[in-house]
Amino acid sequence: MSTLAVFDLDGTLVDTPRGIVETFTAVFATMDLEAPRPEEIRATIGLPLERAFGSLMGVADDDARVDEGVRQYLSAFRELVLPKAAELLFPGVAEGLAALHDQGVVLAVATSKFYASADALLTSAGLKQHFRMVIGADQVAHPKPHPESGQVILRELGMDAGRAVMVGDTTHDLLMARACGMRSIGVTYGVHSEEVLRSAEPTWLVDTFDDVLAHITAASVRD
Length: 223
Known about the structure:
Elements: E1 4-7, H1 17-30, H2 38-42, H3 49-57, H4 64-80, H5 93-103, E2 106-110, H6 115-125, E3 133-135, H7 148-157, E4 164-168, H8 171-180, E5 183-187, H9 194-198, E6 204-206, H10 209-222
Parallel strand pairs: 1-2, 1-4, 2-3, 4-5, 5-6
Helix pairs in contact: 1-4, 3-4, 5-10
């Protein structure tokens, strides 16, 4: 039986955090609002857009200004980030995912992005063909760190949690994995620091995507 590797997207496969900060900043300027500091924006990466905007604006997630912010963000992201997607891949990602796919590892994505944005980013980056399934925040009632995204992937692909590994750069990813019964790999090159990642008790903690590949390959052999 195959091993399942579930990946986060922003900060794990694609180095989008800087572009995300630029996009949020542009949206706040368009709405004539004072832009949050870059570190405040980075702290929301990994959350669904409604929660991120609500937190940064200091309003409820269902506030009309949040809806407007999300709408403008999705448009600005397509203009500012998508054209650069292939250039933003972390070292080793393109080759590594192709190798895992060739080894028979089942690949999926669980992201806090809306599905359409995730699909567009994966397509622009040249990665879409490797993934059996992509779950966005708008496809579940409870996004990460709630286990629902992982549970949907496991159910739809007919995989056992004990044969699955979640890879992500935030505690949201690692906590989702634990709640699903998956092993997890925390990557230190993304949004959350090594200290913060350790607080979520990942199965493994790594510094490069090559290390991610080594653990998944080893897990696949053991499984």
